[in-house]
């Protein structure tokens, strides 16, 4: 069978990829369901370096990075940034859960013979009846899922480009994936932090930079103080690092410490941290001011812990992520046969 493929014209990425010096290593066919219709794409795996968008600048600073369940802190040499991590995905995720619950209800209504009186599914082999309503909901869920993945990809890409504009030598703590999964559930995992990190690593290395990550349990950056060197266990609800005259938003402070980790030993270089701190403290504080300004002084995401600043002395407000975590206990999907993922 021979099928002609449609090649988008004036697409710089495709034009670059199809240059003769980029030999085709192998091809794969990808199926995507778009509006419940199958679309087939040809993916070419090519030799050489990926296309660099000339609009995306590449910086030369050394970056300390802290990716939290809902925040991301970036500390360079002259600039720092504190922002929410993929928070735009949360409404879509909630919508998706609503659809999944609807599917559950429809499935149960169509197949009462497969359920026990307490609502659990009977064991053993079963036949499932799928009503047209159920199929409609299922295809809506699939479409939403696809949009969610595309949206996530674009948000990740934006954040990665922003980091790369500052620098491509990146240091960060490994994400404690298992513990996040346990403590925060799907509302956080929908942001796909591991996918974000591996994308960043790939792009930074392709741009001639480096990527170093170190296990949390050896560095304990979220608990250590670079002046006295003490490790203080802080629950996640403490959004500020306060010790030895330092008062800093926790994620930014952790990103700063990541920047000061010796990549050869994988441990914190305290002397370096002490040397860099006086120059970087105003940079970090400026990042906080920008967050407060952009949030108009109000509606500031609680996960930044900036509430603390405005009501000095009063207890820190419980952070949004905790509420989200409670909110996020979603049963494992039982829709394996309805797989919404793309198939390779
Ligand atoms: Zn201290």
Describe this structure in words.
There is one protein chain. The chain is an alpha+beta fold. It has 2 domains: 1-51, no CATH class; 60-113 and 128-331, no CATH class. Helix content is 41%, strand content 17%. It is built from 11 helices and 11 strands. The chain has helices spanning 12-17, 89-110, 132-166, 177-184, 186-189, 193-206, 216-219, 250-259, 270-294, 307-310, 320-327; strands spanning 24-34, 37-46, 62-67, 71-75, 80-84, 169-173, 210-214, 240-243, 246-249, 261-262, 267-268. The strands form 4 sheets. The protein has a 5-stranded mixed beta sheet. Strands 1-2 form a two-stranded antiparallel ribbon. The chain has a two-stranded antiparallel sheet with strand order 8-9. Helix 3 packs across helix 6 (193-206). The longest helix has 35 residues, at 132-166. The radius of gyration is 24 Å and the shape is globular. Residues 225, 227-228, 230, 243-244 line the site of zinc ion.
Helix-strand blueprint:
Layout: H1 12-17, E1 24-34, E2 37-46, E3 62-67, E4 71-75, E5 80-84, H2 89-110, H3 132-166, E6 169-173, H4 177-184, H5 186-189, H6 193-206, E7 210-214, H7 216-219, E8 240-243, E9 246-249, H8 250-259, E10 261-262, E11 267-268, H9 270-294, H10 307-310, H11 320-327
Bound molecules: zinc ion.
Count of individual domains: 2
Question: Strand-and-helix sequence, N→C?
Answer: HEEEEEHHEHHHEHEEHEEHHH
Please count the helical segments: 11
What is the total tally of β strands? 11
Measured by DSSP, the beta-strand proportion falls in 15-25%
| Residue runs with pLDDT of under 50 for 5 or more positions | 310-340
Q: Main sheet?
A: 5 strands, mixed
List the bound ligands: zinc ion
Shape: globular
Strand order of the largest sheet: 5-4-3-6-7
Distance between the termini: 19 Å
Sheet/helix structural class: alpha+beta
- Quick check: average pLDDT? 83
The proportion of residues forming helix, as a percent range, comes to: 40-55%
Using only C-alpha atoms, the radius of gyration works out to: 24 Å
């Amino acid at each position: 069978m021979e099928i002609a493929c449609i090649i988008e014209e004036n697409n710089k990425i495709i034009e670059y990829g199809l240059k003769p010096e980029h030999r085709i290593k192998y091809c794969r066919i990808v199926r995507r369901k778009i509006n419940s219709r199958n679309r087939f794409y040809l993916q070419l795996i090519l030799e050489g370096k990926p296309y660099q968008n000339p609009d995306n600048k590449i910086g030369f600073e050394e970056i300390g990075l802290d990716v939290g369940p809902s925040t991301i802190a970036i500390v360079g040499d002259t600039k720092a940034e504190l922002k929410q991590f993929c928070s735009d995905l949360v409404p879509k995720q909630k919508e998706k859960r609503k659809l999944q619950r609807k599917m559950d209800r429809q499935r149960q209504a169509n197949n009462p013979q497969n359920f026990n009186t307490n609502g659990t599914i009977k064991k053993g082999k079963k036949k499932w009846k799928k009503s047209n309503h159920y199929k409609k909901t299922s295809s809506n869920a699939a479409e939403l899922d696809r949009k969610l993945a595309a949206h996530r990809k674009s948000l990740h890409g934006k954040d990665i480009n922003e980091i790369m504009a500052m620098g491509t030598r990146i240091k960060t703590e490994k994400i404690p994936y298992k513990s996040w999964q346990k403590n925060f559930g799907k509302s956080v995992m929908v942001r796909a932090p591991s996918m974000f990190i591996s994308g960043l690593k790939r792009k930074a290395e392709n741009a001639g930079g480096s990527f170093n990550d170190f296990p949390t349990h050896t560095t304990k950056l979220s608990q250590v103080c670079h002046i006295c060197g003490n490790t203080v266990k802080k629950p996640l609800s403490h959004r500020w690092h306060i010790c030895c005259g330092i008062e800093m938003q926790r994620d930014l402070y952790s990103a700063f410490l990541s920047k000061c980790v010796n990549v050869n030993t994988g441990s914190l270089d305290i002397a370096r941290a002490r040397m860099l701190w006086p120059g970087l403290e105003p940079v970090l504080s400026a990042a906080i001011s920008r967050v407060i300004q952009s949030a108009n002084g109000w509606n500031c995401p609680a996960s930044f812990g900036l509430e603390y600043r405005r009501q000095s002395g009063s207890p820190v407000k419980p952070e949004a992520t905790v509420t989200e975590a409670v909110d996020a206990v979603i049963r494992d999907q039982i829709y394996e046969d309805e797989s919404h993922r793309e198939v390779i």
